[in-house]
Amino acid sequence: MSTGSTRYKGKSGQWAFLGHRITGFLVFLFLLLHIVDVSLLRWPETYDQVHRLYGNVVLRLFEVGLLLALVFHTFNGMRIVAVDMFPEAVRNQRRLLQVVVALTLLTGIPGGVVIMWPFIEGRIL
Amino acid sequence: MTALETPPPKPRVRARSPEAWSWVFMRLSGLALVFLALIHFTITHIVNDVVETDYDFVAERWHNPAWRMFDWLLLVLALSHGVNGLRTIVDDYVRSPGRRKAVKAVLYGLTGVLVIVGTFTILAFPTRPR
Lengths: 125, 130
Prior knowledge:
Main location (chain A): membrane
Shape of chain B: extended
Keywords (chain A): Heme, Iron, Membrane, Metal-binding, Transmembrane, Transmembrane helix
Cofactor (chain A): heme
Number of helices of chain B: 4
Oligomer: heterodimer
Transmembrane segments (chain A): 21-41, 53-75, 96-120
CATH architecture of chain A: Up-down Bundle
Pfam family, one (chain A): Sdh_cyt
């Protein structure tokens, strides 16, 4: 690594830190959009029209991305709380992050398949 | 063993500074959101397909005040957890005091507007179907 780099050599912990920030930021951005689209409930026809857009394949992929960001942020957040409560757990911090990634994939992939199912079945394009 | 794998000394927080309260808040709201956000996502994206969650679907759920309360708690906790996280990110990356102040003003203003819009959406929704 070059000496001019601002990266600290935290290894897996650094990636967990970065992942937590990025996923938190992305979920927050979605939340802004989501509060605005739900506010359209005041005009039922408009709400239903806009809402139907979420069913197309591009926004379904976006939905899968949201799920992955959400579950990673959830499980990594639980890891952070666990290390705060039991500082000894830091000895196994690399294993803990592997568990976080495994849980993210174990929940995110089946969830993603369910979300993409209408597309997989060929019902939508 | 690297230095990182050495457990830190047990934290002894005596003074309850605003940052200490922020730390407590992130843990408590985060743990509540594990349930609130995941239940919400499971109902609206997994159990029901996203296209099924139309106006009539919301009307049926919000007929029950407990679900309105659930959604309002999710709104407030998700926004405040998110804005507090973004506050620390702004502190880390926006170095000039003037710009930091400006970015935070926009962030807090936007969050405040969204709390009001979201609360209004939940409260103003009619109690009987259209």
